[in-house]
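[job 4471] stage=fold_predict status=RUNNING
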Amino acid sequence: MNRGFYTIMAAQFLSSLADNALLIAAIALLTSLGAPDWQTPLLKLFFVVSYVLLAAWVGIFADSMPKGRVMFLTNALKAVGCLLMLFGGHPLLAYAIVGIGAAAYSPAKYGILTELLPAEKLVVANGWIEGLTVGSIILGVVLGGVLIRPEVAEPILSIFHLNAIGLASFAEGAIFAITFVYIAAALVNLAIPDTGARYPKQKFDPYDSIKGFLRSCSLLWHDRLGQISLSVTTLFWGAGAVLQFLVLKWCEHALGMNLSEGAIMQAVVSLGIAVGAVLAAARVPLKSSLKVLPMGICMGVLVTFMAFFTRDWAPAGGLSLFGFSLSWATLIAAAGMIAVGICAGYFVVPMNALLQHRGHVLMSAGRSIAVQNFNENLSILVMLGVYALLIKADLSVPMTMLLFGAFVMVSMALVIVKHLRNQKEFDSTHLIGEEKRH
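[job 4471] inference complete, writing structure tokens
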């Protein structure tokens, strides 16, 4: 890997770190404002709606200039969203502004990999990016949990005299600090090299843009490899968004944890994803990427098993590690969540790499990632909407988690059946490694 790749990694780490810390801080801000519980999953929904509504244009935008410049502008927009959240904007609407920045950032972040690296390095590159992203998720949720703690937030509020400008809550102190992480990410983006890739100029005209975007969607969904990898990543990101909130509720129900402690359990899941991503990068070449599909079923089985776990299942007592006392229930729950994460990371990294490869072969880098983002985030919107309705209907946490695990199992089984039917017609794996068509 060259220096440009490592610069991209550093920028991605900081941006993702801030995204995940901000989610925890925004949840705390909603709580401090007395918002109802069902608004919490809507934070993520407002964040990802831009991926769907702007999908026809963000790919064009990403291909319209060097991608490092795109990443700089979008991180700057995220910082603006933080400031709006601090100075009077509703948390949901302000988080939607951050989501616009993220929607435009993503095609540039992943698209530049296909410009910078050959196809055979995409699984390894995705393993590094996914592992680093998951590392930033771990640190981000922990950072968010730490920043909202009184002993950390109070010094931030007093040192910067934030009370003088009307900022008084612990959540607002945390968001103020997170704004500077976005600014740091934007500055690192300026060091990303120009790959020299240039694409034909495309119009932002609504009719032509939507027509071209729908054509790109059709290309990927009708491609025998694209449809399988796109199905898996669409399912994964929708399920992952729900799991992000479901883990917080499950920790409260099963282990009696508060928001700050539940954020650490979120980080434990992410640790498992990082391990799975690294294992996939080391063990799964692009040619063998489709062999990881059964791991998705394993993930669903593990989530179903954990649905009814409570601290009553575990013996009394625990261990003391690095000065922290951890109960056996917490340790068993953490082990189960790490296993869930390993399964998720192991199957999604090769699928991401395969999807990026097929998108690059069939169309431009930016447009292919925009199609991927549209489908994945439409899944997030639908699944979070269903999850919010389940909360509003007072469905129990164990039953919600059971339904979630069963859905993942059945969906992955259907994807595997579709792939086997495709293979019976003709072997499509020879398309892996194909050169760009145009």
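[job 4471] summary: The longest strand covers residues 318-321.
[job 4471] exit 0
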